[in-house]
């Protein structure tokens, strides 16, 4: 085989890499994709990525385990299964359909209604399936990239989040009439970036914060000093070798990651989101516990470095406590959220176990709207888990449980595998970010925002990325077998001149 690297223009991985950069950068620009036209652009870009991914030459790697492949396939096929037609008589007997079947019979004046899709509203289910394409394409494209390419994309993601945080800080400084709010006056003085809702900007920033802290921990004191001997212990290192840890390039990287983390944290604070600031505090705590004793991969600063990192993390939490209580704003939906939850649970019981159909939540909730909650259109459950259970039924509960098992199993692999390289730090940061998003979606609908869904899918790909099989690398280092028993050492003949004992008589 030739050792010449393939041309980047024809490398399938390069096309996926640059395509992901474009899609990730475009996702938050226009109301975070939460409008028909930008969402259509994202769906077309996702379709192009999927076509290129499946038509490009196979790489020979299987980056996903069998359970994960089944999980992704079910996510993709579940909305399509709800579009399967059923005879009207059978459809009317499905859970929750009798009320609508009677209305259809009265509207059609006894006409033969023939077949209907399982979903209550097939057009909204089709739209929901199309909206699933961007995060699905991002995950499938990113999971097939190399670790080095994914690490570069993590830097792109961190840059996007930093830009959104800085924009939010400028918006807060300029006030509610700032031209940089791009016509979004709904958020008042709170920072919202290019998002419609400050809580959704907080969702992006809370995911980016542990990733930035992970890269900062990977950069601080990373690697051995140049010219250091592997046999020399810490006591044997020279003063010049200690100074080598603080090279200009390394300090510049640490300063950049520190600045990005501070900007993201400040931007998150000025969103004035109670949930966002609370999860930022939790993210700092989890990052401190995860990275404080692995600074630079092996914690070259020893026990003192661990105590210093823990002290900084705890000081940050103490400093954020008064900010949470005095600066954040109460969510205007907070008082009615429990009423929404209760109405959603009633609807889940009506349609269980099949669900009402993807995308039908708002239309279904008109029937279950609380009487003491007037003047409000319930378009979201403010709890994605409840909304999934209503739209998809029992299978949604199964998929949520399977996801939690896969997530916990992957943490075991990330935590135990090999030395802590910068990409492994990024994986751990992505795992913490996903845990924060899973908690945030208990009280909001961040995953229904296309941009945040895309960013979450990207972090899932980073977290679940598997390096080349270690067994394959070990086998590639062994010489090829000649078909004989290679466990026996070779037998060499003794030369004739050495066969005579010179001390014999």
Structural features, described:
The chain is mostly helical. Among the domains are: 12-58 and 122-223 and 246-333 and 419-469, no CATH class; 87-116, no CATH class. 61% of the residues lie in helices and 1% in strands. It is built from 20 helices and two strands. It has helices at 12-26, 36-55, 66-81, 88-93, 98-108, 122-131, 133-143, 147-174, 198-219, 239-244, 248-269, 274-291, 302-326, 334-351, 361-365, 384-392, 394-416, 422-440, 450-464, 470-477, and strands spanning 85-87, 115-117. Strands 1-2 form a two-stranded antiparallel ribbon. Helix 3 (66-81) packs antiparallel against helix 17, helix 8 (147-174) crosses helix 9 and helix 14 (334-351) packs parallel to helix 16. The longest helix is centred in the first third of the chain and has 28 residues, at 147-174. It is globular and about 115 Å long.
Count of individual beta strands: 2
Task: Report the average pLDDT across residues.
Answer: 82
C-alpha termini separation: 59 Å
What gyration radius follows from the Cα positions, in whole Å? 28 Å
Largest sheet: 2 strands, antiparallel
Helical fraction: 55-70%
Tell me the strand order in the biggest sheet.
1-2
| SS-based class | mainly alpha
- What is the number of helical segments per DSSP (H or I, 4+ residues)? 20
Classify the beta-strand content into a percent band. Answer: under 5%
Q: Which H/E pattern describes the elements? A: HHHEHHEHHHHHHHHHHHHHHH
Overall spatial form: globular
- Low-pLDDT parts are 1-6, 223-237, 241-248, 469-486
